[in-house]
Design a protein that fits this description.
About 50% of the residues lie in helices and about 15% in strands. With about 220 residues, it is of the alpha+beta class.
Length: about 220
């Protein structure tokens, strides 16, 4: 069965492991080598389960089917578990990886079209513009991730949508119907970046309220 270990403390000594089978059946939680018992074991994981930890903390797991694509939400005392899919740091990281992939792919295809003289790519508008566009995606993705910049990610999302519209239009003009795979992939890219925007805003707020260390004179 698939399994993943999450660390509940910065020192990475307080570990919790979750395991699940096909379609998240046989969902199991282990803590300190012991399997935890849910307070509501008969409840489906899509409805949410709660697992009391020995020290009194409450761990909860729910397959969020109201989100698409669906996400496994893991909370500790109501807060996202570090490293889990719904934690803002992970959401921001996924947005950065998405833009890194899009940017590198765009630059790679552009370079191949220009320096490799690939006629098929050139006929579809791939070239120096793709290289520049890819570099922009990389820059915006880095700013969004490293600087927690929601505006940078918002700009990237707008460019993704516009690029998708232009690509769709070019395909139709060339009498090529875009495949469902292209549309789904573009949608997943947009969802990942959109979640990254929300995560960047949340992290900026959280980091702003953390008190700065007191400055003491010598």
């Amino acid at each position: 069965m698939p399994s993943k270990t999450y660390y509940l403390d910065p020192a990475r000594t307080d570990a919790l492991t979750v395991e699940w089978g096909f379609l998240y059946r046989n969902f199991t939680v282990r803590y300190a080598g012991q399997e935890l018992t849910a307070t509501n074991p008969d409840t489906k994981i899509a409805q949410g389960r709660q697992y009391p930890l020995p020290d009194g903390r409450m761990f909860s797991a729910q397959l969020r089917e109201d989100r698409w694509p669906q996400q496994l939400e893991l909370l500790l005392d109501g807060q996202p578990v570090p490293g889990s899919g719904t934690h803002p740091v992970e959401s921001l990281k996924q947005a950065w990886y998405t833009l890194l992939f899009v940017g590198a792919l765009s630059m790679g295809l552009g370079a191949l079209a220009e320096f490799g003289r690939v006629e098929v790519l050139q006929q579809n508008g791939v070239g120096w513009g793709s290289i520049i566009e890819g570099a922009i995606f990389l820059g915006l993705g880095w700013l969004g991730y490293a600087k927690r910049s929601a505006p940078a990610l918002t700009t990237a999302l707008v460019l993704l949508v516009l690029d998708g519209v232009v690509s769709f239009k070019n395909a139709m003009l060339a009498s090529h119907t875009p495949g469902i795979g292209f549309l789904m992939m573009r949608f997943f890219f947009c969802v990942a970046v959109f979640r990254g925007i929300k995560a960047a805003k949340q992290l900026r707020i959280e980091e702003a309220i953390i008190p700065e260390p007191l400055q003491t004179g010598l």
